[in-house]
Amino acid sequence: MPRAVKFTRYGGPEVLEIHEVPRPQPGPGEVLVRVAVAPVNPGEAGIRQGVFADIWPAHFPEGQGNDFAGWVAELGEGVDDFTIGDEVIGYLPRAAQADYVLSPAAVLTPKPADITFESAAPLSAVGVTAWAAVNAVRPEPGDTVVVSAAAGGVGSLAAQLARLRGATVIGTAGPHNADFLRSLGVTPVEHGPGLADRLRIAAPQGIDAYIDTFGQGNVDTAIALGVKPQRINTIADGRAVARWGVHSEAQEGAFSRSVVAELADLVSKGLLTVPISAVLPLEQVQDAYRQVQRRHTRGKIVLSLVPEEERPAEAARITSHL
């Protein structure tokens, strides 16, 4: 039977279990997608732990995972913009880590054939979040932009997108990520105590914009360095938003098929790299979240639901059967 990651109580990664579930049936306007890859994201851990229970309560047994990539397995009535076997990128809150997901056709984006499922799957979540953050601070050619936690999932993409707009990008990270950031064309600066002084040295002409993906006082640092609030975006510090009036643009307000398609096109053209630090089987979902929650991951950890060597054969079977 198809599998799905679920949890039946709030808690740490240990509450995640793989359940056998019935194969969903698409209704009008829906597409059944065979999921090949589903990333893991820090925010999903907060929901599972009950941190946001007052805003987004769980409905047990609750699913896990938001973003995915796979191929069309079945079409519901009235869906005429996809065919069986089409490769797609999707976003389905609390349901993505499953062999099959039901998605409204209107929110699925075609996946370019020349990019991997691993590179495609994160685009609808961290990719759109990075796009929103960069768009909020409006980098221009000649600007200097700082991205905190620039080796992470959102940060690594935001840094690249800011560079594509002509900005010089400084990325904060640990020393072990310095060479990685340089490979993306980003100037590394070590995070931690004394960050403001190191940024002044790295950007003697000043800093024009600041993208915070980590919290921990980064917005306060940006303000101290003279960055205007309207050119600061944080996805990790709500108190700084209230205090300073900075932006907090993220995936929720920016998601659209056109944005995902734009990001996928950049990947296809070799202009945007989606760093993948680990590809783990679904059975290792608990370990995947333990790694993510340490907040030292370079790029993304993704779960593989169909091993790479089996994907073409399984897709062909689905296409021929239906």
List its salient traits.
alpha/beta, seven-stranded mixed beta sheet, globular, 15 strands, 322 residues, 12 helices, five-stranded parallel beta sheet
Quick take:
The protein is α/β, with parallel strands linked by helices. It has helices at residues 42-49, 117-120, 126-137, 153-164, 178-183, 195-202, 218-224, 238-244, 251-254, 257-268, 285-293, 311-321, and strands spanning 3-7, 17-20, 30-39, 62-63, 67-75, 87-91, 100-104, 109-110, 144-147, 168-173, 187-190, 209-212, 232-234, 276-281, 300-304.
Q: Which range does the strand content fall in?
A: 15-25%
Q: How many beta strands in the DSSP annotation? A: 15
- Spans of at least 5 consecutive residues whose pLDDT stays below 50 are none
Distance between the termini: 18 Å
Give a verbal description of the structure.
The protein is α/β, with parallel strands linked by helices and 322 residues long. Helix content is 31%, strand content 23%. The chain is built from twelve helices and 15 strands. It has helices at 42-49, 117-120, 126-137, 153-164, 178-183, 195-202, 218-224, 238-244, 251-254, 257-268, 285-293, 311-321, and strands at 3-7, 17-20, 30-39, 62-63, 67-75, 87-91, 100-104, 109-110, 144-147, 168-173, 187-190, 209-212, 232-234, 276-281, 300-304. The strands form three sheets. Strands 3, 5, 6, 7, 8, 14 and 15 form a seven-stranded mixed beta sheet that branches. It is globular, with a radius of gyration of 20 Å. The model has no long low-confidence stretch (mean pLDDT 96).
